Amino acid sequence: MRTPMSWSTRALFLWGSVLALCCLVPVCKCLQNETRNVTFDIGQEFNIKCGENGQTKGKSFFWIKDGVKSNKNSKISRASDAGIYTCVGPNKTSFKINVLVRHEVSAVSASGEICPLDERSPDTKCLNIHEGGDATLWCNATDGYPKPDVKWFIRLEEEDRDIDLGIEGALFIRNISYHCDSLFVCKVGNYLNRNRKSQIEAGIKVFVGRKPNVIITTRIDGKQKDQNVLSICENNEISFNCSVNTHPPPEEIRWIVNKDHVIFWNATHSRIENSSFSGSPFCASNIDNIITEAPAKTEALRYVSITWGFISMDCVESLECEATNRFGRGRKTQKLTKGNCTS
């Protein structure tokens, strides 16, 4: 004979049922609204039915993608067919699928800037790193599924071959050595690219250098003088040479003559020119006697010399050489004073 449940037991049973129902409802709701991934190949039939029990009932059920009604009863034709599809039916019931389309990588983006004209080439960026500096090189696919691999190489252009660095993902450079220029190449692709031998490459030219180290050497009447302050006479023939041996070569070397006014000579790979001078006619005439010399256009810009056949201390008290490259600017000043001169 079964013993009837007491009121307290019944209450506990009912309360437990309510709790179980409350716990199950959100779980069921989550399962109903869960978005599942469905992967297709390009050219494959879109075989996911939108409707009750997988059956489409006229126009009662339809797919929506990106807010637009989609008649997806055809093939996956391109990579852009990927995305979230929502099946909408009567009473606003719906479920979602995330369509993934397998396709190869067709383009990549890489770190660095557009290279100077003399270094420019397709699919190659340039990156300047100061001596002893750090840098992170990255290379990202702009498309492609499944997720592609990124592998790094150093290209030996003289030998026309690549050395595998055994590094994937980002390439970290630490405390890079001076004059350690290299062409790094990232090769990007997934298994589709590998099967079709269509991996995408991007190059990053790394230039390592320092700002110019400027040296001024002076010759007075043919004899070299190395002094912070030079004692000169107006009848001396003086040659000032500004040289820069730092890598990379300067893009510009400038001589600046200081007194009450400033005149300067700008030397680049293609020209050497002087500024206008607004001082006295005497100083203008005196400065016009300066002869400048620079390397030929086909050579690296490593020096600029100025020679003064007759210098007037009323027109100059110091000369400064300033050189600029992609890593910064360097300066050196040569001070002048009037010597104990005899006529």
From TrEMBL:
<dbReference type="InterPro" id="IPR013783">
    <property type="entry name" value="Ig-like_fold"/>
</dbReference>
<feature type="signal peptide">
    <location>
        <begin position="1"/>
        <end position="30"/>
    </location>
</feature>
<dbReference type="InterPro" id="IPR036179">
    <property type="entry name" value="Ig-like_dom_sf"/>
</dbReference>
<keyword id="KW-0732">Signal</keyword>
<keyword id="KW-0325">Glycoprotein</keyword>
<keyword id="KW-1015">Disulfide bond</keyword>
<protein>
    <submittedName>
        <fullName>Uncharacterized protein LOC111130765</fullName>
    </submittedName>
</protein>
<feature type="domain" description="Ig-like">
    <location>
        <begin position="212"/>
        <end position="337"/>
    </location>
</feature>
<keyword id="KW-0472">Membrane</keyword>
<dbReference type="InterPro" id="IPR007110">
    <property type="entry name" value="Ig-like_dom"/>
</dbReference>
<feature type="domain" description="Ig-like">
    <location>
        <begin position="26"/>
        <end position="98"/>
    </location>
</feature>
<feature type="domain" description="Ig-like">
    <location>
        <begin position="122"/>
        <end position="205"/>
    </location>
</feature>
<dbReference type="GO" id="GO:0016020">
    <property type="term" value="C:membrane"/>
</dbReference>
<keyword id="KW-0393">Immunoglobulin domain</keyword>
<dbReference type="InterPro" id="IPR051275">
    <property type="entry name" value="Cell_adhesion_signaling"/>
</dbReference>
<dbReference type="InterPro" id="IPR003599">
    <property type="entry name" value="Ig_sub"/>
</dbReference>
